[in-house]
Design goal:
- 10 copies of one chain form a homodecamer.
- Chain A has 97 residues and is α+β, with helices and mostly antiparallel strands.
- Chain A has a single domain, classed as Alpha-Beta Plaits (2-Layer Sandwich), CATH 3.30.70.1060.
- The first copy, chain A, contains 2 helices and 4 strands.
- The first copy, chain A, has a 4-stranded antiparallel sheet with strand order 2-3-1-4.
- The first copy, chain A, is elongated and about 55 Å long.
- At the A-B interface, helix 1, strand 2, strand 3 and strand 4 of A face helix 1, strand 2, strand 3 and strand 4 of B.
Chain lengths: 97, 97, 97, 97, 97, 97, 97, 97, 97, 97
C-alpha cells in the first residue's frame, strides 16, 4: 500500500548566499529530484508559471518516508512546503465501477 | 498546442437547497466531469482528503475553452475555483535531454 | 500499516436549522464519533476551549478510508476540516534508539 | 494561437545590495522589458501608484514561454509575481456578434 | 485630463435570487458595460478564467465619476470591487523619450 | 482639477542601517514632507498611535504626479504604501445641495 | 480635551432586506451622519471609490462617546467598523515650533 | 489554583432573528455576564470601541470550567471567541521581588 | 479625563544583535515599563503564554501621550504594536446603575 | 490539578547561523525536549510532515509553568509558537458516564 500526497514547494534562496554554494545546491536539488522520481515515489511534477515553485504528486509508503524524502532535498532549508493528502476522486473515470 | 493548468475546486452547497435539486445537480456534475475526462482535456483529478474539493490538472486548447469547460460544470455557481498555470519542470525526469 | 493524521474540525450550525433536526444531528454525530473511536482509528480527541471545535488524531489504514470516516460524520456538511499528516518526532522519548 | 495572462510584479530590492550592482540590474531590467515589448508578447504595462510594482498583460505562445520570459527578467530574483489567466469577456464591445 | 484605474470586479449572486430577476440583472449589467465602453471610459476588460470576475482598466475624468460609473452597474450590490490607481510605466516602450 | 487619495505609509527601517545615514534620511524625509505640504498637495496628515506610520490625504493633479511625490520621499525604499482613491461623500454636510 | 480617531466603515446590506425598510434606514443613516457633523465631532468624511464605504476622522470627548456615536448610526448593525487612534504628526506643517 | 485567560468575544446576530427572541437573548446574555462576574471568575471586561465585542480577562479553576462558562452564555451560538492564555509578566510592578 | 486602550506588543529581536546591546536593551525596557506603571498610566499587563509578547491596558491623558509612552520603550524599534480603544462595558458589574 | 494545552512549534533557523552553534542548539533542543517528556508534562509530540515543526500536547501545573517550559527550549528564539487550550471532549469514549 502507498499513500498519495499533493506537495507544493516554494523555494526562496537568500540573495547573499555564496554563488558557488548556490550553484552546487541547485544542481544537488535537481539530482535528488531525479533520483526520487527514479525510485517511483514521485509520479508527477510541474513548474508553477512565474514562480520558483513546484507542484508535485508523491506516492509514498508512509508519512515518515514522505517526511524523509522531502527533508532530504538539498534546498529543503530554503523551501516552504505545503502537504495535502489526496484520495481517489468519486468522478475519476478510471475509478468507475 | 495545448495549455496546462492546475485547478482546485471547493464546492459548498447551501444547506437550504432543495434536496431533490441537490441530488440532480450532484449527479449532473459527475456526468459532466466524466464527459470532460472522455474529451481528453482532464488528465488528472483527485479528492482532497476531508474536503468536498477536487484538485485537477487540465490540458486545454485555450484559456477561453478552459473557462468554458469550468463554467459548464453544473455546480459552478457553488464552487470556489483557483487556477494556476503550469509549465514543464526543469527537473522532470521525462524532460531531460 | 496505518497513517497518522492531525484533524481539526470546526462545526458551525446554521441558526435557522430546524431544532428537532439539530438535536438529531448532534446526537448522531456523537454516536458516530464513539463508533469510530471503538473501531480503533481515533486514538485522541479534545475540545478546543471556547469553540465548537475538535482537535483529533486519527490513525487510519489509508487516505481513502480517512476521507470515508470524516465524510461519514453526520455534521460533515456543517464542518470545516483541516487535515495535517503527522510523522514520528525525532525527539519523541518513545522513538529513541 | 497565443495565451493571455495578467501579471502583477512587485519588486523588492534588499537595502544592502551593492549600489553599483543595483544600478546595473535596474537598467538591465528596463532593457529586457523594452525588448519583450518589441517582441510583441507584452501589449500592456502600467506602474501601480505608490509601489515599485508593475501590472502587465502578456500575450504568449505557451505557458513554458511565459515562464521563460518572466524568469529572464534581471530582477526576477527580487520580484514577487502573481499570474492570472485571462479570457475574452462576454461583455467586451469588440467581442459582440 | 483623465485618471487611469485598474478595477477587479468579483460578482457573487445569492443562490436564492428570483431567477427572473437574475436574468434581468445580468442582461442589464451587460448593457451598462457596453454603454460605458461606448462612452470611451473603459478601454480594456477581460474575464478572469474560472471566476465570475472582470479585470478592467478605466480611464475617467475624476474619482467622483469613477465611483458613479461603478455604482451604476446593475450588479453593483453583488460585486466586490478592488480599485488600483495606475501611472505611466517608466519602461513602457511608448513612454520612452 | 485634482484627484484625492488616502495614503497610509508604514516605515520600517532595517536595524543594521548605519546610524548616521538613518539620522540623515529621517531628517530629509521630514523636510520633504513639509515641502510637499507647502506645495498644497498634502492637506492632511496624522501619526497612527503606536506605529511608525502616517495616514495622509493627498490632493494631486494626476496619478503620475502622486507616484512622483510618493517615490520622492527619502524613506520611500523602506515604506509600505497603501493608496485608496477618495470621492465626495453623499452625506458630507458641505456637499449638500 | 478631545480624542482623534480614524474610522473606516464598510456597509453591507442583506439583499433580502425589505426594500421599504432599506430606504428608511439609508435615509436615517444620512440624517444621523449630518447631525453628528453638525455636533462638531466629525470633521472629515470621504467615500471610498468603488465601495459602499466611508473613511472618516472623528474628534470626540471620550472613547465611550465615540462608541455611543458609532452605535447610534441606523446602519450600525450592517457595518464593519475599523477604529484607528490618531496623534499629531511630527512632520505636520501646522505642528512645527 | 486558578488559570488566567484573555478572551475576546465578537457577537454577530443574524439580521433575520425574531426581534422578541433577540431582546430576550441580549438580556439573558447580560444577566449571565453579571452572574459570572459575581462568581469571581471574571475580573475584567471592556467594550471594544466600534464593535459589538468584549475583551475580557477570566480567572478560572480549569480549562473545562472555562469552556463551560463561555458556552453557557446565551449568545454563544452567535459569538466568535478567541482565547489566549496569560502568565505573570516579568515586568509587572506587582511581581517584582 | 483619561482614555483607555488595549495594547498588544510582540517583541522580535534580530538574532544578530550584539549580545551586550541586547542585554542592555532588555534591562532598559523593563526599567521603563516599571516607570510607566509607577506613573499610573499602565494599570494592567500580562505575558502571553508562549510568546515574547505583552497584553496591556493603558489609561492615558491623550492619544499623543499614548504614542509618546509607547515610542519611549527602548525595544520600540523591534516591537509590533496593536492598539485597540476600550470603552465601558454595558454588562460590567461595576457600571450598573 | 493540571491544565492541558495544544502547542504547535515552527522552527526557522537563520541560514547564516554559525554551523557549530547550530549543531549545538539542535542537540540542546532535543535534550531539553526529552527532559520535559521525562518530567511528565509532555504526553504527546509529533513531527508535522514536510515542516521543521512539532505538534505537541502539554499537561502542566499552571500557565506560568507552561511559559517557563516553552521559553526554556534552546531554539525558543527561532520558534513561532501557537498555544491552544484544550478541554475534555464530550464525545470522548473515555469521558462517557
Amino acid at each position: 500500500m502507498t499513500v498519495l500526497f499533493h506537495v507544493r514547494m516554494d523555494v526562496s534562496l537568500p540573495h547573499d548566499l555564496d554563488p558557488h554554494r548556490r550553484t552546487e545546491l541547485v544542481q544537488a536539488e535537481k539530482d535528488r529530484m531525479l533520483e526520487l522520481q527514479n525510485l517511483g515515489v514521485w509520479p508527477h511534477l510541474w513548474r508553477v508559471v512565474g514562480h520558483n515553485s513546484t507542484i508535485a504528486v508523491l506516492d509514498v509508503p508512509s508519512n515518515d518516508e514522505l517526511h524523509a524524502f522531502l527533508s532530504s532535498l538539498p534546498l529543503w532549508e530554503f523551501t516552504r512546503v505545503e502537504v495535502t493528502p489526496l484520495a481517489t476522486h468519486p468522478s475519476d473515470v478510471d475509478a468507475q465501477p
